[in-house]
Amino acid sequence: MSLTLEPVDGIGEVRPGDDLADLVAARTQLADGDVLVVTSKVVSKAAGLATTVPRDELIAAQTDRLVARRGPTSIVRTHHGLTMAAAGVDNSNTEPGTLIPLPPDPDASAATIRRRILELTGVRVAVIISDTAGRAWRVGQTDIAIGCAGIAPLDSFAGRTDTYGNLLAVTAPAVADEIAGAAELASGKLGGRPVVLVRGVDPAWLSADDGVGAGALLRDEASDMFGLGAREAAVAAITGDGPVRGLPADDAITVDDLVELALRGVTFPRQRVSITGAGVTVEAGDDQVVAGAVAQRLTSLGIAFGMTIGVQVVTST
């Protein structure tokens, strides 16, 4: 397989109400089997989603639940099921003072562009909606497919054998993501070319209908081993509250806050836990086992929040 990737020139600034399919069809010669990679930014612009709503409010509106927060950076799970910094809200490549959220249904956006291309040109293409995302275990970002139509997002190798005859069980290249990443290299982050024409993809990946969409690439919460940051996982486990829905206020955490978290769901009197500076004393009384558990909870929470807390358990006299 030999791929060619060609950015579509001349699209210019996309405005609310613009027909993206028409903009593309007027500027390049399309053929059956081509793949168009379209940035989510211009999809949102064409849909009139640019806004001057304050950033925190917009992120909160796009957030299903908080995954992790460190300082000003919030990693959240969006209502789409995507895990992204700032819910994908972006202020790059847009007019000063405005913000762009992700399209509400990227798979539907991809399908709409695909059908419109067919209507305008008679050509059957696949469409990928791309956006930039980080990776939990690596530095840097790459473009991924947040929506697609007419192309399989995954190519499952289950049941095939490798060159050594080993049976493959779970290998499934995320071809839509890989194409999105390659397209970003071709267009350039600062090139102002939001659409890339990809030619030469394996015909086996293409479908006559819209297909399952990029939603098939999303892990459900039950199978997501990175569904919470280390700090948030510790709080969820200790309090028993589970993941925090929505986007809570970014308040500074104090030792007193950690005490309240440690006591949540535990029958132990708050008045028997005293704070002196950065130290905490737990008065055991007749509940030495529970007091020890509270002390361990406090120690674990301190580690999770990067706070050095001296915790001691004392027996009442």
List the helices and strands and how they pair.
Elements lengths: L3 E4 L12 H6 L9 E5 H7 L8 H8 E8 L2 E6 L4 E3 L20 H16 L4 E10 L2 E12 L25 H13 L7 E5 L30 H10 L15 H9 L9 E4 L2 E5 L4 H17 L5 E5 L3
Parallel strand pairs: 2-6, 10-11
Antiparallel strand pairs: 1-8, 2-8, 3-4, 4-5, 6-7, 9-10
Nutshell version of this structure?
The chain is α+β, with helices and mostly antiparallel strands.
Q: Features of this protein?
A:
alpha+beta, 5-stranded mixed β-sheet, 3-stranded antiparallel β-sheet, elongated, GTP-binding
User: Can you identify the CATH superfamily of the largest domain?
Assistant: CofE-like
**Please, what is the average pLDDT?**
91
Count of distinct structural domains: 2
State the assembly state of the protein chains: single chain
Number of helices: 8
Q: Can you name the CATH architecture of the largest domain?
A: 2-Layer Sandwich
Largest sheet: 5 strands, mixed
State the CATH topology of the largest domain: 60s Ribosomal Protein L30, Chain: A
The beta-strand count equals 11
Question: Helix content range of the residues, please?
Answer: 25-40%
